[in-house]
Amino acid sequence: MKNLVGTGVNGLDTTLYGGVPKGNTIIVEGNPGTGKTILGMQFLYFGAVQYNEPGLYITFEEFPDQIYQDMYSFGWDIRKLEQENKLRVITLTPQVLMEQIKNPDGLFQRLIEEIGCQRIVIDSISLFHFYYNSKEEQRKTIYALRNALRKYSLTSFLIKEYTEMDQEQVSFVNYLVDGVVQLKLDHHFENYRKRTLEVTKMRGSNIQEGEHLFKITEQGIYLLPALSMVEDETITSLDVVPTGIHKLDRLLGGGIYDGSSFIIDTNSKSNYRFLLASILANRMKAGENVVVLLSSLNTIDDLNGTLKLFDVDLEQFVEDEKAIFIEHYNRPVPEKFKNATINVVGLDDDKYKQLLTEKVGPSIKNGIEKGGKWFVYYDLNTIVSQRGSAFLKRYFAEEVANMSALGISILSLCNFKELGQETSSFIERTSNGVIRTWVDGIYQYMQITKTPNGHNSEPFVVENINEKPFIRLV
Amino acid sequence: MNDHHNNVPLQLECTLYFEKNPYAYETIEGLALRLGREPSDLSPIVQHLVSLDIIEALGEGDSAIYHYNQPKIASEVDLSWEQV
């Protein structure tokens, strides 16, 4: 993997997982007024100031003194950087540029060497259309330009204006370069406009896909990566246990934080077995004690079998008094699990709460006093079907508050659609994170719609694989 | 009319353009486009500015490129634009 260089726009670096690969040639395209020149100059200014990478800004049409003034409004003193040999704003024509690029020991090479140039912006390559008549000549020229930029290992932004033709077909230039960044100015609600940036191509780097909103502020371009929400400041724990699903962990900032409450919202067709088992297995491998509220579809035997696939020995956990099961149904319980199972069949709500307080409460308290951690898994659909949604609302908020105060992490399974809008909204509000999974047509999808760190995700397709954790998000 | 002695305003216009844009590299054709002047009017003026060391020529003939010859003193003086 190539070295990544910061673009000077933090949000853009986030969407590129660190920055643009050093030496890449990147098209920045958009209609007039979309912020191309500002993005180009921000790339050079912060390159010089923050990363000690001197840069050249080559403009074919704009006068440099106009650029000095425009950029000063963002607090960027370009002339000062020119005096320090960290930046140059050059004006010449495309023909002169190409002649000097081809000329050994020409002006271009001299300028590069004079400041130790590592970044370059050319504003704009659309002007080549006017200086070179045939398509073939234009293509050859752009190709020669790209090769020269690569020869000097320059990380380059080539600014390009949209033409009507570009909107109908992809320009040949976009095939030649390493990256394409598109800037747009679209209607937003009734009376507003919104600026968006989308990276549609970047060789040597992953991309967070989609259109990202940006604003032109007093400090230049400020980009908000898509699906960013406000951070949940109530989660202060730094201890995090991975879910075991790589992409999920990356989006969650490492996994599920201690003391947080997460929901898995699933529809009736989707398979959540491996997601649930992976999360549970990783908590158990991290040494946590577990409480599991069993559902009608999930017996202790089922759970035991699934956890074995993740190399977790549930029987050993029971023997070590590190696992408790809550059973709402009259089903046979394997001998080894009997002491760890609390049967709540037929109990009214008060007796149910009382029994849990008496039986589960002391175990948790003892465990915590000895420095242990607890992880609780609830099947909320079972609580609703057995005790009603009014009980769930009353009970769940109280449970989450009490457990969170003790640093206990909670994972709850439910089906928002079945719970109804009011109950679902309540449950969602009470939780720190929501992972949705659903089947739509012939694919199963998974999406994070709420997280403590505010980073939500796009919908991923769930792919079954033959090794742990048996699912992969694509 | 093309004689630089008779065209001090154009001489000033050229000098100011290069002074304000110290990294402009222009052919006579390019400069004519920037200033909205005729190349034939500009040519003797530019040659005169070269002889005065105000601008420097890279190359010869029609393809010669002209750029500002920055006074040595410039590096010791703060010329940031807002204070000009």
Automatic annotation (TrEMBL), chain A:
InterPro entries: KaiC-like_dom, KaiC_dom, P-loop_NTPase
Gene3D superfamilies in UniProt: P-loop containing nucleotide triphosphate hydrolases (3.40.50.300)
Key word Iron present: no
UniProt keyword Translocase, yes or no: no
Domain KaiC: start-end pairs: 3-237
Keywords: ATP-binding, Nucleotide-binding
Gene Ontology molecular function: ATP binding
Protein name: Circadian clock protein KaiC
Organism: Terrihalobacillus insolitus
UniProtKB/TrEMBL annotation, chain B:
Superkingdom of source: Bacteria
Biological classification of the source: Bacteria, Bacillati, Bacillota, Bacilli, Bacillales
Originating species: Terrihalobacillus insolitus
Name of protein: Uncharacterized protein
